[in-house]
TrEMBL record:
Residue ranges occupied by any Aminotransferase class I/classII large domain in the UniProt entry: 33-384
Biological process (GO), any one: amino acid metabolic process
The species this protein was found in: Neomicrococcus aestuarii
Family, similarity comment: Belongs to the class-I pyridoxal-phosphate-dependent aminotransferase family.
Protein's recorded name: Aminotransferase
Coiled-coil region: none
Length: 402
């Protein structure tokens, strides 16, 4: 029998956090009380109106068929109104594509915007799915090493260095707030990156799924984050219902597309997924009600309370350098002196889970070169879970102190 092959595009690293979630499920099945702070899953769930709309939809017995490839008109209209509400900017509904989560949007946009062999830059540390999807599509990933000196965000100077070393950059992925660091770019920094992309013919892809989950006073300009659609009509913006609205399992996101990408993304969407999940689309219309916005803001206030507790606890944990947690719900921290006990964050996290039943994510998911010094702690699970986890981490570290 002739041996069959596996496509090289499938040989990308797995998303380590998913493996950790599998282990968390196994330990819970075995009866252990595990505090899971490894995934960005808000604990509050979908807004009440969204859940009610979904229940009524299913109870009605209506036949749920395919929608158009870009999604139902009422939802796209609500998203357009959302951009006016939060950013004071006009987005046409024909430029909005509803997708199967932000992940589906990344796949469609990368397919439509880049050819195999193109070079696309992203910050390191950064969300691993960018790198892995691009690599699977034959697109060359240029990782920009970022640290505290640039608040873990790319700069025009770093892009100049990357282009000098690797050749012409065809795209830049920007995340603000970023995963895993939670750092943000302000309006001037975004404008500088847009100007660099314009000058060099690079497509800007702006990941804005954590917009609204920010910790600046609401009275400050741009407190929720600056959207690339305010600055660059040629940028792609990708967002999701998973974070501010607490709907990760509903698998619903969207892309705001420049005019030149609309035909390609439309054709690809119809072939790849036909449409995003119809029940989620119809229910998500209620995510833009006044009550749902208020629920989202209340969830962010709870994130802020949990973040404040966690930042106060960091000196007791004895970790090292911590990225500024401007937004999202992550703390990305160097383990500092604890690396003399556990040589890597991977070993630290494995021991913490098995001994103390606390799940964190080790840094190599986000940074294959320097990440094994770092851990990412998600405080999306809420104050009570983080309070318990900190106590367990302190006890765990005390048992292993030298």
């Amino acid at each position: 029998m002739v041996e069959k092959r596996v496509a090289s595009r499938a040989l990308v690293p797995s998303f380590h956090v998913m493996n950790i979630l599998d282990r968390v499920a196994q330990l819970r099945t075995a009866g252990h009380d595990v505090v899971s702070l490894c995934a960005g899953e808000p604990s509050g769930g979908a807004p009440v109106g969204v859940n009610q709309a979904a229940a009524e939809l299913h109870a009605s017995g209506v036949s749920l068929n395919y929608t158009s490839a870009f999604g139902i008109a009422p939802l796209r209209e609500r998203i357009a109104a959302h951009y006016q509400r939060w950013y004071g900017t006009t987005v046409n509904t024909e430029n909005i594509a509803i997708t199967t989560g932000a992940s589906g949007a990344f796949m469609l946009v990368f397919l439509a915007a880049f050819n195999a062999g193109d070079r696309v830059a992203m910050a390191r540390p950064g969300y691993p799915a960018y790198r892995n999807i691009l690599s699977a599509l034959g697109i060359n990933v240029v990782e920009i090493p970022c640290d505290a000196s640039t608040r873990y965000q790319p700069t025009p100077e770093l892009l100049d260095e990357a282009q000098a070393e690797h050749g012409h950059l065809d795209g830049l992925i920007l995340a603000s707030p970023a995963n895993p660091t939670g750092t943000m770019v302000d309006r001037a920094e975004l404008e500088a990156l847009v100007a660099w992309c314009d000058a060099h013919g690079a497509r800007l892809i702006s990941d804005e799924i954590y917009h609204g989950i920010t910790y600046a006073p609401s009275s400050e300009p741009d407190a929720r984050g600056v959207s690339a659609v305010e600055v660059d009509p040629t940028a792609v913006v990708i967002s999701s219902f998973s974070k501010f609205w607490g709907m990760p399992g509903w698998r619903l996101g969207w892309a705001v597309l420049p005019n030149d990408l609309i035909p390609g993304v439309d054709a690809l969407a119809g072939n790849v997924a036909l449409c995003a999940p119809a029940p989620a689309q119809y229910a998500a219309v209620e995510a833009f009600s006044e009550a749902a916005y208020a629920e989202g803001d209340a969830a962010v206030a709870e994130f802020a309370r949990t973040r404040a507790f966690l930042l106060e606890a960091l000196p007791r944990l004895g970790w090292g350098e911590v990225a500024p947690a401007d937004g999202a719900f992550y703390v990305y921290a160097d383990l500092g002196p604890w690396l003399s006990v556990w040589e890597t964050s991977t070993a630290y996290c494995a021991a913490l889970l098995e001994e103390a039943f606390v799940a964190l994510t080790p840094g190599p998911d986000f940074d294959a070169e320097d990440g094994d010094r770092f851990v990412r702690l998600s405080f999306a699970a809420g104050y009570d879970a983080v309070f318990v986890a900190v106590d367990r981490i302190l006890e765990f570290q005390a048992r292993h102190a030298r």
